[in-house]
Amino acid sequence: MDLLKLCGLAGFMTALAGAGALRAQTNDDVITLPEVVQGVQQWAQQNVDTNVLAALPALDPAVVDRFYNEFQERMGGNVVVDVAALRDTARTVLPLLASRPETQPYASWLKAQMDYLDVAEEIRELPPAPPLVITNAPARGATNAAPVVARNPPPQEERELWRRQVTGRPLPAGAGAYVAELKPVFVAQNVPPELVWVAEVESSFDREAQSPAGAVGLFQFMPETARRFGLSLWPRDQRMQAVPSARAAAEYFKYLFDRFQDWRLVMAAYNAGEGTVERLLARESAHSYDAIAGHLPAETQMYVPRIEAVLQEREGAGLEGLARPGI
After folding, report:
1. How far is CA 11 from the centre of its chain?
2. Residue 139: exposed, middle, or buried by beta-carbon count in 10 A (0-12, 13-18, 19+)?
3. Domains observed in the chain
4. 221 Ramachandran zone, left/alpha/beta (phi>0; psi -120 to 50)
5. Of the candidates 48, 54, 114, the residue with the CA atom closest to the CA atom of residue 84
6. Exposure string (b/e) for 219-235, b if CB count within 10 Å is 16 or more?
7. pLDDT digit string (tens) for 271-318?
8. How far is CA 320 from the centre of its chain?
9. Which has fewest Cβ within 10 Å: 1, 13, 63, 312?
10. In terms of C-beta density within 10 A (0-12 exposed, 13-18 middle, 19 or more buried), how is residue 278 classed?
């Protein structure tokens, strides 16, 4: 049943979107997913016929909030297998988000994350890898970080897992048109055009995808990074425009390559942040992705081989084989 058609929710969502855009323009805050869900639920309870409301799928803001907080915590931790515990909850939350127009952008984001949960489950079922002593980032205000013994698979094993995961996968809807349009944008920035496929991993080529943290668009730019690379968020969010967002992504990739001189490290920095990668390289006296992979956040440990597997499937090229950015 389409709530928009039944009760005029479009006006409510337009006001909510305007409020979110204003907040993003003024102080970088974003309206979070739980706020969206709770606001719509409260509005619906006050304005929608009881029979209509009862026919809608249940979407408890508290459940969504707990799931997202745990998702952030586990993906930001260092132990990949911990992510597997979220798979069943994600499978429950995803169709509920997809059932409502106002939460569809979050459903698009979560759909692009499901591979992480599936691969983490596959890793959980593998024989234990040799233990690796790692140091988690200390909690805010703490002076020391407790060492953790993790059993993350080695990078080469993760690469093989991800190749099997994506082999034979059909193109995401709309990918063909976007790839043809955006490859010239990458070429114009003297960046390998194969990197357009990063959008498959980030958003499954859905320009309206939005993470609960506030990342938006094909390449999932956060507000601060978007502005850093010339994207406007107001009055129209250019993160949702294919060509401007691709140009910004290409510029960012080129900047990161100039900094790290290695495409795997570039992808790790794009996902985990430049500072995280730099600190780990310095701490481990390392110069390669594989040397720091097990110390990266769980999401990044899967993100980099996932990018590489998608490039192999779509272009027959790995990250190591990509050309250096041109001058």
Report:
1. 29
2. exposed
3. 10-137+148-321 (1.10.530.10)
4. beta
5. 114
6. bbbbbebbbebebebee
7. 999 999 999 999 999 999 999 999 999 999 999 999 999 999 999 999
8. 22
9. 1
10. middle
